[in-house]
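Hi Prof. W.,

I finally got the Nucleoside-specific channel-forming protein prediction working! I wasn't sure whether to trim anything, so I left the full sequence exactly as given:
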Amino acid sequence: MAAAALALALSAAQARADTLAESGGTPPELNTTAVMGTAASQPAPRYLSDWLHQSIGVIGSKDIRFGPYTTNDVYLEYEYFGRKGPFDLYGYVDVPRAFGVGNGYDTGITNKGSPLFSEQEPRVSIDDLLGKHLGFGPFKEWYAAFDWIYDQGHNVSGRQNTLYMGLGTDIATPLPVYLSANFYVRRQWENYGAANANSWDGYRAQMKLAYPIGTFSGGNLTFVSFFNYDFGSRLAEETGGNTRSDTAFVSTNVLIYEFKHWRFWTAARYFHNGGQWNGSTLNFGSGPFQNRSTGWGYYASVGYRF
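And this is what came out:
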């Protein structure tokens, strides 16, 4: 799915990158509720929430390799992230092909495809729940970590429902860098008609990095990088032939330039066996074609934070 998986790039990692970029160590969003004299003297809040970062944006994508065909799309996205008590939250909801723009293999709300694609990635701090510091060495904090992906297609071949669950941690580094890791087991329900539907099928290793580069012309410039490595699946064996893979690797590099409300970003993503497609010759009844599941894809976005 073209919309899938930029998910992590603008996650809670970004919130922590914002923190690192500020000399005082606290994102400016969180300072707007500080008591300074009378209530009348307080500045107006910058955003609707002092902890939940929200934005809406338009995203253009090219050469996305999660399915049998490479796709291009222009879609709408609502995104949120933030930390409240033990809850480290991130999620987004996309409206695929929201503007009727895309290549011939792109489907979405304007051409009777899926009207909604979403991903929710909550983490719950085990340290906070137990009231104990469980960190050791470079591992600062531990989480129960989840990643739920849902594509609301109109039938089995157009729908995905996947839950990753496992353990996560934040990792200390000697640099002003936010680094985190999650390790998941995968529960698969619908998967676009694939043979691994309704099964426990494989694992995912994930790492995220965010580095605040600096402030330029009043905007904060941040570099974000992350990867997902899926392995231990039996999709290839269950499908038969050589069309599917038991592994998939996706690595994404994002450059974000944001102001008080406006946000701009661009991303380059490398796919290896994207969507667990094996890069073989496929034929769905309209003649053979080459699946190109390995290669680069690109994104660009403009959004508004509120």
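The chain has four helices and 15 strands. Does that look reasonable to you?

Thanks,
D.
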